[in-house]
Amino acid sequence: MELPLNPNPPLDPPTPNRAQPAYWVGPRHLAGDDGRLYDAIADTLAGLGWTSLTIVRGRQEPDEAPEDRQVLRSTVLHISPDNRRWAQWVLPDEPFHLGGLPIAWQVCAREDVTTPLAQWSAYFTPDVPGEVLVDFLLALDARDRPTASFTGPEVVLDAVTAHGWLRDVDQPDAGATDPTFTSHLSLGEVPPLIQDADLRALTGEADEAGPAGWQAWAEPVLGAPCLWAVSFSAGVPHDLVAAFAVAVSSTAPVLRRVLPESTRDQLLRVPAS
Question: Cα separation of 24 and 29, whole Å?
Answer without folding.
Answer: 13
